[in-house]
Write the structure tokens for this entry.
Amino acid sequence: MLYCNYCGHPTQDGSLFCGSCGKPLAANNDGSSGTTSTQQRQTASKEKPSWVDSLNEYVGNDRPADLNWKVLFSDVFKSHTTEEAEAIFICGTKTTTPAPSEVSKDWPHPWLYSRVFLMFIMAFFLLWICVVGFSNSNAMPGMIVVGSFAVPLSTMILFMEVNAWRNVSMYHVIQTFLVGGCASLVATLFLFSIYSVEEMNFFGAFIIGIIEEIGKAVIVYAFLKRLGKLSILTGMLIGASVGAGFAAFESAGYALQPLMQFLQFAGYAAAHGQMVDESQMLEAIKQSIFLRGFLAPGGHVAWAAISGAAIVIAAKVKGVFDTGVFTEKKFLRLFAIPVVLHGLWDSPLAGWFNSIFPFAGYIALIILVWMVVVILINMGLAEVNKECSQ
């Protein structure tokens, strides 16, 4: 059987186009086997060398890079039933995990994440009306939490949909999000208690990247070991869940800061008989939630997903899933990606690009990290094809 040299989907001999991604196949029309995917990749690399090919090779993908972005959004604007959503949410249990022969080998077309995001947005604006329209301060904690959790949780659901194995239940995903996210914060704070960063220069930014990514990776390792399901897509899901929890709780903390500052100032103003305007405080909270939400998909969620894939890949190379994976060359090679991207994110270089064009530095880093994520999805789907075809 042949495999598409773009997406890894198995195809019948003599086919002209891939039944999954629709791209032309390199196999001969007469049904002959043609060149292998490795030979195709080497030939394509010689003909059209690019930095994308170099990135693809660095990540460890032995197939041509297929940045199939459109499949991540192609089903978002289609109509879907409640039953379809429920089928996604109830996967991963003993009775709903598909057998290897039933696992889909096609490129996933996620869509539920967009519906989850819309639900969060609706809830946020309803709570915003309570706070602003009716001056009900009791709704403010909920508004901050819902606004801060919207994008990280929605991105986590995307990784759940991408996991073709369908072998992780929503219970485990939420558990990893809540407990794993908080545990990664504790691990990170513990590391910062050992070595604190005094100045946010290039050195300080990369130290923060190393500390925070190690803190998350350790927790991702613990949850993967407990889960006992080693595959690239599953590793990415567990990593994304930990990263989403880290991002959500961190964003809620940043959004809370204007409120804390306002309360301190309000107490001082009241003691001196002065009036304070809370509109600036509310605007600061909104800007914090919107900004961090806009940047969230390319931050902690994606970085931790890469770490999760790196742990799985290293464990398979090593043959044993133990702490030795952290010293494996495969792990260190992949783990360097989120560390470097995190360091660049916090460094003065990102701020310099942002001064030229708003968020230019962050947008470039978001695009780059998702290129790596899509390459890893390709590798995960190739793994599905290989293991389910045996």
Summary: The chain is about 65% helix and 0% strand.
